[in-house]
Amino acid sequence: LLRQIAQRVKLTLRPGDDVARLGSDRSWPDVAGRLGGDEFVVLLDRIARPEDAVAVAQRLLEALAAPYDLSGRQVQSTASIGVVTSDVSCESVESVLRDADTAMYEAKRRGRGRHAVFQPDMHQRIRHAMELEADMRQALHSDAFYVVYQPIVELASRRPVGLEALARWRHAERGVVSPVDFIPIAEETGLIVDLGRRVLRRACLDLARWQAALGPDAPRTVSVNLSRAQLQPGLLATSVSAVLAEAGLPASALRLEITETLAMQDDAAVSVLGELRALGVSLSLDDFGTGYSSLASLDQLPIDTVKIDRAFVAKMVSSSYQTALVKSTVQVAEALDLAVIAEGVETEAQAEALAALGCRGAQGFLFSRPVPANELEAWWCAQLPEAAQRLADAPDSIQPA
Ligand code: C2E
Ligand code: MG
Ligand code: MG
Fold first, then answer.
1. Fewer CB within 10 A of the terminal residue: the chain, N end or C end?
2. How far is ligand 1, taken at its centre, from the CA of residue 343, in Å?
């Protein structure tokens, strides 16, 4: 893979391309080299403005994003590029490399296959991220990480049927940190594998406890979010079945949520999804409608449920275009025998509009925010008085541990 990457970098930088030329006599050819690991450095001497470097970065990103053939296996890989120009960073060779690295870190943070141009204030932000990372390593094995639950309801009856488990981090100084801030760092550092397994285990143990206590009135399923780094062939399925066995839950009680970009990435990811399906676990396509979502992926991916992103739901009431998109998503899902859950339902008007379009499931602040286990239990029992009665009758042994 590294050799093919190097070859593509070389081809992209070939002489005679449209990089702006300064006084051609004094300029060096463009130079590229591997710094180590999977990091490359490209030195452009023939540019007049930062935009020229950005144009080259764009070409590199495009060239590097095309699939690779590794002895017949198709592999997808993307690059992140940090750009720095010598007018901003010129103290020393080390400072140029450090600033390029900082910009690359920022590019990664923004998502896959991006570039970022170095700005002096980036150091501050990166330091913040690095502090969070150090704190996260410390916190991982304490009870600072915990799981909150958001109910998923059946729109027509408003009856709660399932839960989504969402990670939270109670930080000693910063208070509760949002997963929007710490999940990308956990992904970047690989800590997500450990964290993800803990969330999965907690969610399965809690669901098993509720099912034992509430019987037919208990949540039927719990949904747990997965990140790309967790999709390890063999390992993930083994760890999921071990957790299910420990909790004594049938695989059908677990739904794993993946995003489309994650699922479509490469053959390896898709094969892990197959392994999970073979266990009997359901798969939900999360945040549908963001990024480059396509209705075709509903047919191509081995999924059971589509979750319509809350950005869609939010714009639906005021935009007939968004309404049409939701409607066609529901129709295609129905034809393919997939369940549909709308996320981020905040108003009665949204709930009604979704129900009118044939959407059966929903989740959002209108019903409940994500809440800790004990609050979820109280909320659930308030919705289903039968459940409250069962809980009161339950023997002590199945009360919360
Ligand atoms: P998601 O899986 O799409 O989760 C739904 C997010 O929408 C949650 O944000 C939830 O609090 C929020 N939400 C629910 N209802 C409403 C509503 O009515 N209005 C608004 N404005 N927001 C609503 P949260 O908990 O901050 O999680 C954000 C994202 O972080 C999740 O998006 C998920 O992608 C990721 N995440 C959370 N926990 C985990 C985890 O354990 N593992 C992994 N890999 N990712 C996680
Ligand atoms: Mg989710
Ligand atoms: Mg979502």
1. C
2. 9
